[in-house]
Write a structure and sequence with these properties.
- The strands form 3 sheets. The chain has a 3-stranded mixed β-sheet with strand order 1-2-3. Strands 4-5-6 form a 3-stranded mixed β-sheet. A 3-stranded antiparallel β-sheet has the order 7-9-8.
- It is of the alpha/beta class and about 300 residues long.
- Helix 1 packs parallel to helix 3 and helix 2 packs antiparallel against helix 3.
- The protein folds into 3 domains: about 70 residues, no CATH class; about 100 residues, Arc Repressor Mutant, subunit A, CATH 1.10.10; about 110 residues, CBS-domain, CATH 3.10.580.10.
- It has 14 helices and 9 strands.
- The protein is flat.
Length: about 300
């Protein structure tokens, strides 16, 4: 019998590699079409075929990745590295104005959870495990809530699925009620600082937002990040409206994986110093972590 847990991991690995690699348009379309076929095979129960296709596609992406890395290594010059490191050290010593710093410290306490929440994905308790797995693969949800008689009774995270798969139970017989875990919730009036704390305590990327006993929606790390970024530049002037738009674009680029300062400068039409300032602000919120390596930038959510 095929190892379903391994197949899901391989599909996730393929999606991550596609996001990180700068594929040519024709090549990108072909790879994504192959991934779609793999998901279809998996969804209809052709697990062995899905795994074989996934192995072949991973091998192909690895070859592309190796070629890309050789090109990047060949283009890196020592002078550019020294310049990047020098600018980064200067920015660390002299990071902008007191009023910006004060806003950074207080912003998590100022924003209510209700301002950052979004619509939740909800399934009935009798929904099949296969359908739930497909939802996670297609939409990359942080969590899916389970309802019974119009009441939210549980939350399914990827960790719940892996736990069930590890027990080698027959997946075709499992329902949402068999997989779900406890609901981790927060009141709509609580602030984002408390939301992040609860997420860390429960190792969860999403929380149910409640108004008393009434379920309102979901708040995720990603939604918190977007709300913080917009709020930092919320004063509606022509200049700040442009800044807010660029911050949105910056987040969209970073969410795709690894990028470079040069790419950010070109796509945002903003100088390097301004981009570094925005990244520092977001990193200081302790919602994200920025990793820098040979001129490349990668965003990670703090867990």
């Amino acid at each position: 019998m095929a190892d379903l847990k391994q197949i899901i991991k391989k599909i996730s690995e393929i999606e991550d590699k596609i996001n990180k690699l700068s594929l040519k348009k024709k090549e990108d379309l072909k790879v994504k079409e192959e991934l779609k076929i793999i998901k279809t095979d998996f969804g209809i129960g052709l697990y062995s075929l899905a795994e074989d296709r996934a192995d072949d596609l991973l091998k192909k992406l690895k070859e592309i990745e190796e070629k890309t890395n050789k090109k990047i290594t060949g283009k890196i010059e020592k002078s550019n590295l020294k310049e990047d490191f020098k600018k980064e050290s200067v920015l660390k010593k002299d990071f902008k104005k007191d009023n910006v710093e004060r806003k950074e410290k207080n912003i998590l306490n100022m924003i209510k959870v209700s301002e950052a929440m979004g619509e939740a994905e909800i399934v009935d308790e009798k929904t099949s495990a296969q359908e739930i797995i497909k939802k996670f693969l297609d939409k990359k949800y942080k969590g899916i809530f389970v309802s019974k008689k119009n009441k939210i009774v549980g939350l399914i995270k990827l960790s719940n699925l892996f736990e069930i798969l590890g027990e080698e139970r027959e997946i075709s017989k499992l329902k949402a009620e068999d997989i779900m875990g406890e609901i981790i919730s927060i009141d709509k009036q609580d602030n984002l600082s408390k939301a992040i704390l609860i997420m860390k305590m429960h190792n969860s990327d999403c929380l149910a937002v409640m108004d008393g006993n009434r379920f309102l929606g979901v708040v995720t790390r990603e939604k918190i990040l977007n709300k913080i970024a917009k709020n930092l530049f919320s004063k509606k002037t022509p200049v700040n409206e442009k800044i807010e738009t660029n911050v949105d674009r910056l987040l969209d680029i970073l969410k795709k994986g690894e990028t470079s300062m040069k790419e950010l400068e070109e796509k945002l039409d903003v100088d390097r110093e301004q981009i570094e300032e925005w990244l520092k602000i977001l990193e200081n919120q302790k919602v994200i972590r920025i990793e820098r390596h040979f001129g490349k930038i990668r965003l990670k959510y703090v867990r």
